Amino acid sequence: MQLTQVVILAASVAGVVASPFKFPTPDGFPNPSPAQLAQIERGAGGTLATSFAPTSLKSGAITALNLLANNEFSEVAFFTELRDNLTNNVPGYDARATAPLDRAQLIKAISAIVNQEELHALGANGILVGAQQAPIAPCQYNFPVNNFREAILLAETFTDLALSTVPAVQALFAADGGDEPRNIPLLGSILGQEGEQDGFFRYVQQKIPSAAPFLTGGSFDFAFTALHRFIVEGSCPKSLDSIDLTNFSPLNVITKPLARNMTLAYSVNGPVDCKQQSMVYISGQNLPLTVPIDCPVWPRNDTTKFKAAFPFEAGFANGLTIAAVVNGTGELANPDAVAAAAVYGPGLILVD
């Protein structure tokens, strides 16, 4: 087994962005001309989808599409910065940093991902506009990475989280009684495309491209919270507060987890009650697993440190595990129930 890796999405993202980036991009995104759109489509390897677009949306679908569009804009910013840093041989992204990878092929792959994410964002906005809803405009972003290896690990992490969220959108579209079910195949195609990306990110890190037989499920609220960690506060043209989702206080994973049973240390900005609250893990397509928080906890100023078991051998999957501190000590039925009970989260843990 390789040593595991963990990405901590802290309350304040203070990463070094070697190549500052702002919208619009040189190809006109997010408002490309017809000629620029054709250029984006060529780079992406395909066109914007022309399948069914609903003329009305239920409130839950509007929330989901607002989340997806915001996430796609964040990914466009991230991969554009990564591509530019590689192309310009920025320290930490130069040939030495990417060896032994084929650098030309790497830049070609990341460039395609930029264009594909641009089409994802344009597609989500197109569905919103077609249903007489306001489109999403990009914010300013700051990503906690300063070299290629950190960037690829972060790309794997937020792509894992996207892969946990899109099936929840499909389930919502299937159940809400509106016209959205006809867009479920479109979401399925995006899900597959993101999976291809994730396999590439893992392969670049010398991991098995496919992490597990069944990938971890998630919740809109956990994806929304993670997205906040990359956004410069106050920079969004449309406040994220207008989206009816919860932004949790962060759960920081202090210990590097391994692919075995062990105890992990955590920290949060706030109080923890080790008798009335517990730690819940979501891993693979298994039921969430609740474990006690060890007593005592260690509060200091506004921060509380504590420990809890990480029972990997209880059936956890390789790849992403989502951790959350919840009110109560009982078992929870699914990721949405975990989010409904959560106080701190998500802790995003990668184990391979």
Name some characteristics of this structure.
5-stranded antiparallel beta sheet, about 350 residues, 4-stranded antiparallel beta sheet, 9 strands, about 40% helix, alpha+beta, 8 helices
Strand order of the largest sheet: 1-9-8-4-5
What overall form do the CA principal axes indicate? Answer: globular
Specify the biggest β-sheet.
5 strands, antiparallel
Q: Could you tell me how far the N terminus lies from the C terminus, measured between alpha carbons in angstroms? A: 7 Å
Strand segment count: 9
| Average of per-residue pLDDT values | 92
Order of helices and strands: EHHHHHHHEEEEEEEHE
Proportion of strand residues: 15-25%
Low-confidence stretches: 1-19
Number of contiguous helices: 8
Structural class: alpha+beta
Binned, the helix content reads: 25-40%
Radius of gyration, whole Å: 20 Å
Brief characterization of the structure:
This protein is an alpha+beta fold and 352 residues long. It has helices spanning 34-44, 59-87, 95-98, 103-130, 148-175, 184-204, 220-228, 335-341, and strands spanning 5-7, 251-253, 262-268, 277-283, 289-292, 298-300, 303-310, 319-327, 342-351. It has a 5-stranded antiparallel sheet with strand order 1-9-8-4-5. A 4-stranded antiparallel sheet has the order 2-3-7-6, with no helix packed on it.
Structure description:
With 352 residues, the protein is of the alpha+beta class. 39% of the residues lie in helices and 15% in strands. The protein contains eight helices and nine strands. It has helices at 34-44, 59-87, 95-98, 103-130, 148-175, 184-204, 220-228, 335-341; strands spanning 5-7, 251-253, 262-268, 277-283, 289-292, 298-300, 303-310, 319-327, 342-351. The strands form two sheets. The chain has a five-stranded antiparallel β-sheet. Strands 2-3-7-6 form a four-stranded antiparallel β-sheet, with no helix packed on it. β6 (298-300) and β7 form a beta hairpin. It is globular and about 60 Å long. Residues 1-19 have low confidence and may be disordered.
